[in-house]
């Protein structure tokens, strides 16, 4: 299929299968010990020269293997029995598939664990989860990705990850792990995956902010704003109005959120002095006004 070959001309891994062997043949084994091999770092011209033998499986890889196989997982895989029927064969394949999928899922989660920091929104004051968080003043954001800082943070991750060559020293293992992460960062899958994960985090961040705004009602919002400076109070008023307008302009209006923001605007209007009139000092020193000079 020339279209398939054109599409996958840069595919990093090529699995070559030999001639089809009927089920139940003596040549059929779960993992052929002498009829499977891995060829790495071959040029595209040499790949076509590899011809698998009968029942042989050849995996041609663009990169060298970076991980060691887990013996505990290999021992859990079921081998075919001599008198295996079709139903037993399907059950064995299903069980082996579940074991392998679970293993690689856990391995993938472990590999991606250092990236979790970039999908957790934060604030400059690191108080976005606190009870005193004012979402109008302290806006949550996602950390910016820095490759150098990221690689420095994962150097100690090597002990948790099964890098190929367990008998080599720690420095070499760290070097191999850094190379593995660098290839992932420069590969075609990193940017789409990272952007998708950040989009999910942004949705979660907006939902949290909405929940917080709807929670701030009456005296709870009043306590947050009555002790801030006049400049910050006016900033809260400006941002609340801007946020109200953006929510109202949505195709489907969020009535609960609009009512909450309108309540905040009414509270601020009752506390703030008119913009055209300078605030005056209270006559009685014991009397406090929210935004007096």
Automatic annotation (TrEMBL):
Signal peptide: none annotated. Residues 269-293 are annotated as: Disordered. Residues 280-293 have a biased composition (Basic residues). One of its GO terms (cellular component) is recycling endosome. Transmembrane segments: none annotated. InterPro entries: DENND6. GO terms for molecular function: guanyl-nucleotide exchange factor activity. PANTHER family: LD41638P (PTHR13677:SF0). This is Uncharacterized protein. It comes from Lotharella oceanica.
